[in-house]
Amino acid sequence: MNASGQLSPVFLSNVKARMIFRRAAQREFTQNAVAVFVALFAILLTTQLIRLLGDAAGGSVAPEAVVALMGFNALNYLSILLSLTLFISVLLALSRAYRDSEMAVWLSSGVSLVAWVGPVLRFALPLVAVIAVFSLVLAPWALNKSAEYRTRMDQRDDAARVTPGAFKESGTAERVFFVEGGAGADGRVRNIFISTVQHGRIGVMAAAEGFSETHANGDRFLVLGKGRRYEGTPGTTEYRVMEFDRYAVRTESRELRGVAKTPKHLSTLELLQQRQPDHLAELLWRVGIPLSALNLALLAIPLSFANPRGGRTNNLVFALLTYLIYSNLLSVSQAWVIQGTISFGVGVWAIHVFMFFALLLLFSRRVMVFSWGRLWR
């Protein structure tokens, strides 16, 4: 304050400069995060779609299940995707500030490198909370629902498996179906081909039309109309040809079974209740994702240093290497907990504490460089 009791212009200008600094940092972090997330999410959906379409073409996934499974898989990977988004968005914003010499202006105006911790934390903490929700709650729920959906699709009866224009194997692997035309308004399909193998004899049926029929006792039949059946033994000339106006083929559902529960499919509460090593290792991974996201957001501050006269990608390569090392260390800790090499209590915090000390070391190195640079000038 001055002699009249009012705030000095220098103090007001410093406060105003710091407010501008915080708003500019938050705005650039948010813009980068939106762009990075959209790009990464598009890559995720594309890769998942290609893989699921390949599985559908191979018959291991029903075509109508592709969209649902893609949604479940996206929920499962969103925690990792958001963690990477947080790291890259902070890294890109600060690297741009170095390349455009904006960081030099902030440092010369009294804003130290440590002052970036506040804006980064204000931007990162809400995202870390969202990552924790996805990692601890939504990801295991999505994996469990995906497994249940796959099981339910596998347990459909043979008639429900038939897809026009594609050969489909029955649930018992004794029949192969082919339907040329889909069901019309009357529920009948056109031009049906069925191949069966029973007691070493091959039977082939071709019919002009067919439809599904359910009897009072619950048995389901695929009823064929106006067709022929060819039956014989491979390697011999003994074949029989029969014509029919109506032929009913019983369709069977697979035996109902539950979802095979692995630690990945269990909720976080169930993992806490079951203290086996593999359950604790899965819990370590889920807890480690949000903790690593927070550490990585702070690590992006010293890792973003870029010499405007040097290469533009050197720091990005080193930052990517840091992310891969951190992720691999989490996987190694998970494996060590399963093997009993380390306890869960040590594994759940050791890697994060190690990376936090690495963060402090990088900060001290960068702050010392800038301090010596100003002293030399």
Describe the structure concisely:
The protein has 377 residues and is α+β, with helices and mostly antiparallel strands. The chain has helices at 9-58, 66-99, 102-108, 117-154, 158-161, 268-273, 277-303, 314-339, 344-376; strands at 167-169, 175-181, 189-198, 201-214, 220-232, 239-251.
Write a structural description:
- It contains 9 helices and 6 strands; from the N terminus they run αααααββββββαααα.
- With 377 residues, the chain is α+β, with helices and mostly antiparallel strands.
- It has 2 domains: 263 residues, no CATH class; 94 residues, no CATH class.
- α1 packs antiparallel against α2.
- The N terminus and C terminus are likely disordered.
Mind sketching the topology for me?
Blueprint lengths: L8 H50 L7 H34 L2 H7 L8 H38 L3 H4 L5 E3 L5 E7 L7 E10 L2 E14 L5 E13 L6 E13 L16 H6 L3 H27 L10 H26 L4 H33 L1
Antiparallel strand pairs: 1-2, 2-3, 3-4, 4-5, 5-6
Helix pairs in contact: 1-2, 1-4, 2-4, 2-7, 4-7, 7-8, 7-9, 8-9
Q: What percent strand?
A: 15-25%
Largest sheet: number of strands, sense, barrel closure: 6 strands, antiparallel
- What integer is the average pLDDT? 79
List low-confidence stretches: 1-13, 370-377
Which strand order does the major sheet show?
1-2-3-4-5-6
Broad shape: elongated
Helix/strand/pairing class, anyone? Answer: alpha+beta
Give the end-to-end Cα distance, rounded to a whole number of Å: 31 Å
The helical percent reads 55-70%
What's the helix count? Answer: 9
Order of helices and strands, N to C? HHHHHEEEEEEHHHH
Rg calculated over all Cα atoms: 32 Å
Number of strands: 6
